[in-house]
Specification:
mainly alpha, 154 residues, single chain, 7 helices, globular
């Protein structure tokens, strides 16, 4: 992602956090840990992580390519609160990127598309790390995996 786009997104940090919070408040919370008030305290750390990763993409010479493996992370039992947290975050970041790109009318289409792909890769990479970390200690994980394997065999 171009350095100008990263800096423009960084200048929209408060807007991204406000939108992310609003989206969290309309998401369905399937566990106590998924309640928006529980997740809000993660925003600053997560935004910092995403910005750092985007800055690294700006330094890279070769553009990243969105692959099928760059899908949103999954959780075997579906109770992971980070699932909804990162879905809301992804939307907030994409909206901010679109508004940023609109403000830069001379931006080439390929650069715009590249920025979207790189943003999704970064967010989903951060999300996957966090989702998998919490899933690894989940008390429902083994039962959910067993059920999934049994369903796959039938």
């Amino acid at each position: 992602m171009q350095r100008e786009l990263v800096q423009a997104l960084l200048s929209r940090r408060s807007q991204i956090c406000a939108r992310w919070t609003a989206l969290l408040n309309i998401e369905r919370a399937n566990t106590a840990l998924a309640h928006p008030d529980t997740l809000i305290h993660l925003l600053d750390w997560t935004v910092d992580s995403i910005i750092r990763a985007l800055e690294l993409t700006a330094k890279r010479k070769t553009p990243a390519v969105l692959r099928a493996s760059d899908t949103r992370p999954d959780c075997p039992c579906g109770r992971n609160p980070y699932l909804y947290f990162f879905i809301a975050g992804e939307q907030a970041w994409l909206e901010a990127l679109v508004f940023t790109q609109v403000a830069m009318p001379k931006l080439e289409a390929v650069v715009r598309d590249q920025a979207v792909a790189e943003l999704l890769i970064v967010i989903r990479t951060v999300a996957r790390t966090e989702v998998e970390a919490l899933c690894s200690i989940c008390q429902y994980r083994d039962a959910a995996l067993s059920t999934a394997k049994a369903a796959a065999l039938t």
